[in-house]
From TrEMBL:
Its main location: membrane. Residues 495-917 form the TonB-dependent receptor-like beta-barrel domain. This is TonB-dependent receptor. It comes from Paenimyroides baculatum. Residues 1-20 form the signal peptide.
Length: 951
């Protein structure tokens, strides 16, 4: 039986080989006056053979019987192009570049008058012909919006929302799924992560995208239902940033801009440069691009800390932030074509994000009866760097295609010393001054409450005007130095990647593709800290009044959006120069300072230091079968094996209060088998109905896998807090149904539904376990059994070209996504005897908003482009803490941006961009919206500049 099967297989290959020898191949590229066109459809009219151009605008039609044929080239925004070709037996026909002429760019009833329309046409053509459910943004379209980093560029896509840091987009989430359930790729490889300044970034797999300049992006591909050739850890979606590479013709593009931030009443500026060309024989191509953006930023922040039992206010914090951010990047691309069948490529990228953050914070401690002032400054630098080298090889017949690449990408984060600082540390510096203080307006029990939490007979504060109400006045001379902190931020992550893919086309209707990928990851985490406690006391005090001062608030006032609530509560801090002087070597040698080193040797901090290795071995097989001109079936599976090794510290506090620290190493592995099926039905050329079943997963966060264990024998029962190397990844069975119609005048209307059945959702659990014959209270991440997420999305992008005259340039671009989810969450409370009671409740997934929408009104006609865009994200559960009354929620947020450009000449375009026109705040609350935890305002900011495209 085995011999018969092998004979049959050999016979099929032999017949295919003979068939190929008698048939020919036609290949070439498609372009218009704006350059090569990806996503164009090329068909042989007589045979129903079709092929789509790739991202370089190239196509190949294979296994064509000898004869004379008519090629029909279709592309949104153009009338069809007709080209005659003759195929001889065994011949390879290079038809060169098939060009849409100026006449062919004119549609029957519509003339594409906007100079930016071709970019959107590229994106929609790629999306229309994609195998999976995908959204695409092209580089020029990114420039149509005031989006200066990769996160803000992606937020305009249907179902996408972002999280911000001091007003700038940082993290991307798709369809409301948790951040770590979405993968971010650079040229098809997972982008390594790094620690950011936001608390929710610690130890996660989420990439901070504000470090990635949007000017370096050629395309953004968002896959909501992936195919087997895409990395499988993408429950929410897979965002692939394709960097710019060698152009098809000589290109020189320059951009210069300047701007203003109203929050700090200060400016910003930016510039970018791109040059690329090809050799005379067109075999060698190269490109180098660079960008630089420096901006002043500011944030007015209020934070409130509540007692978890009665919601009394423990302290109120008023924080005035300002700083300078700098994003710089260099991107290069090289390509060498030996001939039409073989080429090599080399890409490299380097970005440097630097955030010089300064803050003065007034902290009103109602329960401790004191008032504190923190003054801090630190420069956090994050680098992304790496590159890839590979090749693409086609057989002369076009039946076989082989591509390969090896890549290395890494990120690191470090604290950096300001150039003019006298500090001996390259650290994030913080000083604390304090004085005793009592407060007015307290309840009979001596506590401060909001009105919604007030005990009977007491009227608390409104959440809209929570004031400190100090009992007396405070001068800088009253504030005494108590503590200095120098925090050394640091993390590192590096990925080595090797991959290869083999594609075989036995016929024009069927393609089989297989490939393998190896990724070796190494990471380090841990932020050492030096704390200097000042023990001078009353005999040798250092008062803030004796030091050089700095105003609070900084430019722009403080929380003026809330009226004059805090105008009398502000107090100046010390200057940044003075902060650096406090950390000079001479001052820190003062014997009245007591130093505490928070590092791997300190019991209080050893648990936060760990290293890890993750090796991923992946392989896939997929088939793409065109049953007829309307029906296409894509199916296959992906298999990923992950091997993990982590090293951390075990910290044990004994009953005599002595502490033991020893290294600990844990290993684990798991397999992920991921079947996938896509069905694409096109009853008309511009109309697709897509169905997809995909199985995907999300690996546990790095911090959850950290084997570090903190064990204390002092409490009853003793406690253990640790990571869990044996965590299973969260899996999802995803079902998607989507309909999409593409307008000839470059637009789309789409609607779809989706459902995700979840397994092994990861959460932090508390339980009682018997370990080493003793009962412990154990806190560690665990896997829950199940959960689900479902929703629908609708969208439209339509030029109102049917309107008369000048109004025909109007258009609308809007999309809405509704998402609902559920998972079981443990809740903890205590009875009268102090025993822990554990119950469960059904809660939405963290960071999942029910309602997300983008809406834009645009005008594009001739030389003018104007766009007003709004982005809305509904409320979302941010942190599960204690019981539902203590949950931290992200409040709804709606921002409005404006962009406009005018083409002064064929080579020069002027533009203006304005962000946050409505000055929308970022807001978090606890339990109910009338109990704020955090409130931030950023005011309006904008840029204006000029783009010069010399050639």
């Amino acid at each position: 039986m085995k011999f018969k099967h092998m004979s049959l297989l050999a016979g099929l290959f032999f017949q295919a080989a003979v068939y190929a020898q008698d048939h020919g191949r036609v290949f070439g590229s498609v372009a218009d006056t704006n350059g090569k066109l990806p996503g164009a459809s090329v068909a042989i009219q007589e045979l129903e053979y079709t092929a789509d151009t790739d991202l370089k605008g190239e196509f190949s039609l294979n296994n064509i019987p000898p004869g004379k044929y008519t090629l029909i080239v279709s592309y949104l925004g153009h009338t069809d192009l007709v080209y005659e070709v003759e195929v001889l037996s065994g011949q390879v026909n290079n038809v060169g570049t098939l060009n849409f002429t100026a006449d062919s760019e004119e549609l029957d009833a519509i003339v594409i008058t906007s100079y930016q329309a071709p970019s959107q046409a590229k994106a929609y053509n790629i999306q229309k012909n994609a195998a999976g459910i995908m959204n695409v943004i092209a580089s020029d379209a990114i420039g149509k919006l005031p989006d200066r980093n990769a996160a803000e560029a992606v937020q305009r896509i249907s179902g996408v929302s972002i999280e911000r840091d001091h007003g700038e987009g940082r993290y991307v989430t798709v369809r409301g799924t948790p951040l770590q359930w979405n993968s971010t790729l650079i040229n098809g490889s997972r982008m390594p992560t790094s620690e950011g300044t936001s608390d929710n970034s610690s130890g996660t797999r989420t990439s901070p995208l504000d470090i990635f300049p949007s000017e370096m992006i050629e395309y953004v591909q968002l896959s909501k239902a992936i195919t087997p050739d895409i990395e499988g850890d993408a429950i929410g979606g897979s965002v692939n940033f394709i960097t710019k590479t060698a152009p098809d013709k000589r290109t020189l593009n320059l951009t210069a801009s300047g701007g203003y931030n109203d929050q700090v009443r200060d400016g910003s500026y930016g510039a970018s440069f791109l040059y690329g060309d090809r050799s005379k024989n067109e075999k060698f191509g190269y490109m180098i691009a660079a960008s630089y953006w420096k901006r002043n930023w500011g944030t007015d922040n209020m934070e409130v800390v509540y007692n978890p039992n009665d919601h009394s206010i423990e302290n109120l914090q008023l924080r005035d932030y300002n700083g300078i951010r700098r994003t710089a990047g260099i991107n290069t691309g090289f390509e060498y074509r030996f001939n039409h069948s073989h080429k090599l490529f080399l890409r490299a990228v380097y970005t440097d994000f630097q955030d010089d953050e300064r803050a003065i914070e007034n902290i009103y401690n109602f329960t401790e009866n004191d008032f504190s002032m923190r003054v801090r400054q630190g420069i956090i630098g994050i680098n992304l760097y790496g590159g890839e080298f590979g090749g693409i090889h086609d057989s002369d017949s076009g039946k076989w295609k082989f591509d390969w690449k090896t890549a290395m990408y890494a990120t690191d984060m470090e604290s950096r010393k300001p150039k003019d600082s006298n500090s001996k540390h390259s650290s994030y510096l913080m000083s604390v001054f304090s004085t005793p203080m009592t407060y007015n307006g307290l309840a009979p029990d001596g506590k401060r409450y909001l009105d919604i939490d007030s005990p009977a007979g007491y009227q608390g504060d409104s959440y809209k005007s929570l004031a400190p109400r100090m009992n007396g006045t405070v001068t800088p001379d009253d504030m005494m130095l108590t503590q200095l902190m120098a925090i050394d931020m640091g993390s590192y992550e590096r990925d080595w990647v090797g991959e290869m893919n083999l594609e075989y086309k036995p016929s024009d209707k069927f393609t089989v593709k297989t490939g393998a990928k190896l990724k070796a990851k190494y990471l380090e985490r841990g932020n050492p800290m030096n704390i200097y406690a000042y023990l001078g006391g009353e005999d040798n005090p250092i008062s803030m009044g004796s030091l050089e001062g700095r105003a609070f608030p900084y430019n722009g006032g403080f929380l003026t959006e809330l009226g004059n609530t805090y105008s009398d509560a502000m107090m100046p801090g010390i200057s940044l120069n003075q902060l650096g002087n406090l950390f000079s070597e001479e001052n820190l040698n003062n014997p009245l300072f007591y130093q505490i080193a928070m590092d791997e040797k300190n019991p209080s901090s050893a648990a936060s230091f760990y290293k890890g290795n993750e090796d991923v071995y992946a392989a896939y097989v997929m088939g793409d079968y065109k049953l007829n001109s309307q029906l296409r079936l894509i199916g296959g599976f992906r298999f990923e094996h992950t091997k993990i090794k982590y090293t951390g510290n075990e910290v044990v506090t004994l009953q005599d209060e002595t502490v033991e620290i020893k290294p600990t190493t844990s290993t684990s592995s798991f397999n992920a088998f991921l079947p996938m099926l896509h069905l694409k039905y096109s009853p008309q050329g511009n109309f697709n109905i897509r169905f997809a079943y995909t199985r995907t997963f999300a690996r546990a966060n790095f911090a959850d896998l950290n084997p570090t264990e903190s064990r204390s024998l002092l409490s009853t029962p003793p406690t253990i807090s640790r990571g869990n190397i044996d965590l299973k990844p969260t899996f999802a069975n995803n079902f998607d149904l989507l309909g999409e119609y593409f307008f000839d005048d470059i637009g789309i209307v789409n609607a779809g539904v989706f459902y995700k059945k979840l397994e092994n959702v990861i959460y932090t659990a508390q339980s009682f376990r018997v370990i080493d014959n003793s009962l412990y209270r154990l806190t560690q991440p665990e896997n829950s059994e199940s959960g689900w997420l479902a929703g629908f999305e609708v969208g439209i992008n339509k030029r109102l070209s049917f309107l008369p005259g000048i109004l025909s340039g109007l258009g609308v671009d809007a999309n809405y996504t509704f998402t609902k989810s559920e998972m079981q969450v443990p809740n903890y409370s205590a009875d009268a005897n102090g025993e822990v009671i554990v119950t469960t409740s059904e809660e939405p997934l963290p960071n999942q908003s029910k309602h997300i929408f983008n809406a834009a009104l645009f005008y594009e006609k001739g030389k003018t482009v104007v766009r007003v865009a709004g982005n809305f994200k509904g409320e979302a559960l941010a942190v599960v803490q204690g019981n539902p009354e203590n949950y931290r929620w992200y409040d709804k947020n709606f921002t409005v941006d404006l962009s406009a450009s005018y083409k002064i000449s064929k080579k020069i375009t002027a533009f203006v961009e304005v962000n946050n026109l409505t000055n929308a705040p970022l807001r978090y609350y606890q339990g109910t919206s009338n109990r704020p935890e955090q409130l931030e305002y950023y005011s309006v900011r904008g840029m204006a500049g000029v783009n010069i495209n010399l050639f």
